[in-house]
Amino acid sequence: MKILVLLCAVLTLSACGAAKEPSEVVPNEAEIRAAIQSETDKFGLTIQKKDHAGFGALFTEDATWILPDATVAKGRPAIEAGQKAFMKTFEAVTAGSQVIDKLLIISNSEAVTFASVNFTMTSNGKTVNLVNPYAAYWRKGEDGVWRVAYDVNAIGPLR
After folding, report:
1. Distance of alpha carbon 85 from its chain centroid, rounded?
2. What is the pTM of this model?
3. What's the total number of domains in the chain?
4. Residue 12: inside a domain
5. In 3D, which of 2, 159, 32, 13 has the Cα closest to residue 100?
6. What is the pLDDT of residue 23?
7. Which of 72, 78, 124, 138 is least enclosed by beta carbons within 10 angstroms?
8. Residues 27-48: tens digit of each pLDDT
9. What CA–CA distance (Å, rounded) separates 137 from 114?
10. What does R_g of the chain's alpha carbons equal in angstroms?
């Protein structure tokens, strides 16, 4: 019996050693940055067009979106509804370029960005210039597209 237990242990250890997972390919920062920047640039366009479905499509199905007033939307339908409600708070918006200040690559399918966008909003006939710094956790989908899974926003006057 002892020999059988010892044999099972040796076979188990051998199998564990032979079944090593292939190491993941080292992430290519330039490719990941370009792909995320491309998706990031779409945010301003969807906001300007008040394209709620297009805005929601930039998020994963289970994403969380936190607005500057701490309103939380979970899931793509809630994000689309939240964006629609937010768009009603002003007549027009012009978004500037989205700038990724810091990119943290977790793996070939996960990353975090710290970014900002300057924009001009018109509400009640008054125009203001604002900056929206935000942090976003990104996941690359099975379709190869990077989408935001968690997004936290702040807003303030442009200085």
Report:
1. 21
2. 0.81
3. 1
4. no
5. 32
6. 56
7. 124
8. 999 999 999 999 999 999 999 8
9. 9
10. 22
Closest CA to 40 of 98, 87, 79: 98
Long-range own/partner contacts, residues 22-27 (CB < 8 A, 24 or more apart): 24/107, 24/108, 25/108, 27/105, 27/107, 27/108
User: What is d(CA 14, CA 29) in angstroms, rounded to the nearest whole number?
Assistant: 36
Total H helices, total E strands in the chain: 4, 7
Site of tokens 């793996």: 107
For residue 23, CA distances in Å to 26, 47, 73, 102, 119 come to 9, 40, 36, 26, 43
> What gap in Å lies between CA 30 and CA 87, rounded to an integer?
33
Q: 122 is written with which tokens? A: 């018109």
3-state class of 110 per DSSP? strand
Q: Which domain holds residue 149?
A: 26-154
